[in-house]
Amino acid sequence: MKWTFDTRGKASGGVLVALLGAGIPALVGAALHTDVGEPYQETRLYFGTERPDGRDPIGEPEFMRFLDREITPAFPEGLTVHDGYGQWRGKDGRSVRETSYEVVLLYPEKEADERSARIEKIRQAYEDRYRQDSVGRSDDKVTAEF
What we know:
By secondary structure, the chain is an alpha+beta fold. It is built from three helices and four strands.
């Protein structure tokens, strides 16, 4: 009878254990260390396009003029616009379904008070100009890096 001993299995198993042992702490550390970037505020504005008097909705060219004249000067460093479709219940209790635009603004958290005042002027301008009940707003604290 001939006995053989293969060390490759033990060696490769030991290498696997060593790699896993070294990699798991690194992965756990990366998962726990998520604070990439600086503290920013993210504001999303929701602009409806239906007009209360039954005229044609606010079209893309008209909205882009509003964006160029009102929003871009207040946030010249940049923004993002998404086309959307939304619905909400009006003051009269009727559901309104409409094309909409979502504008995403990012700005340093330390400027939040001053930027919020700019945002409120934008909301008011749109509501007044297009006779809208409201422009939706949501705010979140995020980290961002550019």
